[in-house]
Amino acid sequence: MIDIFFEEIETLTELNPDFYESWLDQVANLEKKKLGDISLIFTSDEHLLTVNQQYLDHDYYTDIITFDYSEDDFVSGDLFISVDRVSENAVENNVSFLHELNRVVVHGVLHLCGYKDKSESEEQMMRAKEDQMLQLI
What we know:
By secondary structure, this protein is an alpha/beta fold. The chain has five helices and four strands.
């Protein structure tokens, strides 16, 4: 089940929970997983920075923080997403806001599926998987 929340920002009316439920279910299935409970929490740069400092001891802005609650084959977790970072990334990468938002969402879900992005090879694999999953839209 996909739940959508907004913290310290205006509601993004263009977001459709049914779309995310259907799409992320496909993503999980392709990774031989089952979709569990995922919360998409859209927030501001400042709020996400506070989360980053408080829970990860990191002092920098980021576009997403993923808290993994997956068990067995069920993909579950909280995805905190900075709408400010997504907007800036979209401009920088010359893509639409919604495209970049979907890339960040699937990035978080791929983390829940077990993908990492710390090394260069892991990051390349993550980008390839993001592109593959975006093709499903």
